[in-house]
Protein: NEDD8-activating enzyme E1 catalytic subunit
Amino acid sequence: MNCSVLILGAGGLGCEILKNLVMCKISSIHIIDMDTIELTNLNRQFLFSDEDIGKPKATTAIKYIETHFPNIPIRLIPLVCDLTTLNIEFYEQFDFIISGLDAIKPRRFINEIIIQIVCKSTFEKVIPFIDGGTEGLKGHVKTILPGFTACWECSINTLPKGQDTLPMCTIINNPRNLKHVIEYVITIIYPLDSIKWDDVFADDKSDKIYQNILDASFTRAKEFNIDTSELNLAYVMGVIKRIIPSVSTMNAMIAANTCNEFLKIYHDMIEITDSGTIQANNFTILNGAEGCFSYSFQYERLKNCSACSKLYPQT
Structure:
């Protein structure tokens, strides 16, 4: 398939998306991720192994593909950097952008970039942005064609509260806030899933465990020069209660749906009306928490959207 695709993120979703696109024999794939591999990634990021811990995710994922699929002629380029530091000229080279990110800020950045590209080219260059996201046993896929569908910003209110403030698919190697610190502590130093809580409560040791978590959080935060003015026992407990694990099966289903959306657009399986809108469902929700079902619908553009309103005539 003669096209160039940029994958955002090389975590649980990104690895699945990369594997799927390689099987589709895309001619050129770039994958970008600024993080390194942690032990806790290995249960759901299947392109990595124990020997890869500490290595950059993007380069290691590409190395896996090159090693295991040497006869598939694909141009594979890893990028280890913050995607928000790259300029519009970098993004203009791609035909598709597919996201497996777990934070709001970089998604908003990409949404703004593809809108700028449409404005700059006066609709000669339209880059589809397909965004996948998971939250435990739930997930979504949003398909954005700037100027033809609702943009990513139009549907920002559909995201679960707190999604941007707490990473869901990785422990950050270089923590940037207190929530990253606490998640590291309760996953690596004092893993909560290894504690026998019945014995703890029977012996009245819970206060000591929580204090140990708090002390370790202070130590790690200071190591990375992170402000600890808000760090206390209540803050730690609040973070613990909000952590939602990443589920490999949901990653696989969401990644498959993002690639289906890519294939539909690539093979012209969507219709554009005379008024210039897309006649297709561009928003899909998957729910595996209560049985298993999916629902797709057409998400309407917000007329007063702060991001994409510039693409439409004022009424």
